[in-house]
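Exercise 7.
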Amino acid sequence: MAQGSREIRRRIKSVNNTKKITRAMEMVAASKMRRATAAVLAIRPYAHSAWNILTNMARAFERYQTGLLAVREVKRILVIVVTSNRGLCGGFNSQLMKKVVEQVKNPAQLKINRVGNRRIESSVPDDKIEIDFVTVGKIGANLVRKIRKNIVATFDELTYLPKIEDVRALARLVMDEYQAEKYDKVVIAYTDYISTIVQQPKLRQILPISKVDLEKQLADMDMLAEEVGLEKESIEYKVEPAPKEVLAGIWPRLVEMQIYYAILESNASKESARMVAMRNATDAASDMVDNLTLIFNQIRQAGITQEIAEISAGRAALEN
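Solution. The predicted structure, written as tokens, is:
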């Protein structure tokens, strides 16, 4: 019995040490979450306005099927996956990769391109669609290797509060590969930050630039409509000096903004998920300590009761 109580004391001490670690990690994650959410909330009005401009310009320039607007039958797809460098963040990485793997195994939706409101179906069979990856975060790179898909490039340094300048290399790689017709469609897989306890994995089409997908993005951000003064009707643009020159200047910046925004959303989601996971781990450790303490007290009480019973029996034996 003494050995059992010693073992329980060791377990209580071990769980308390673990609790201190998870509590410290929760506080660190909470601090990072505040900075990450502040960054994404600060960029949302700008992103909303950029989406609005991009939507209306895509409508105005639908007849220019060149460059980043070129729509081709989908044969090869490039997927940008935004995950974390480390684990201990609940289902943040697993939920996103589950969605990605489902789309890769059944690419019926991935191989659809859009021009205006029209859907262009690919005649290529699902098993002949080639899908390559660009990974942001080590966890995503490891999981992509497990499903034996080709990784074109990795950007592990973008997993926490990058600047727009840091994203340009990734954006330039994506745009160059698309314009070189190596890929017919570019999609980004990221986790949308909704609240501290709710994050939603999403796949968004980046290239070719699609008015429909941009309008979906705007619909997801309609909570900011009053703040940014969202215009719901079409906007007429006067283009100077020439449409091609405008396209060459503005499309790359707005594609960069789409990627940058997705990474900031994922960062906020990651830190929120990690804080909640560490809080849950701390609460679980507290419950475990309470249960172990109860068991320890029961064992100790049983030992005391047994000793009293033995003393009483010995005294009775002596009196007889």
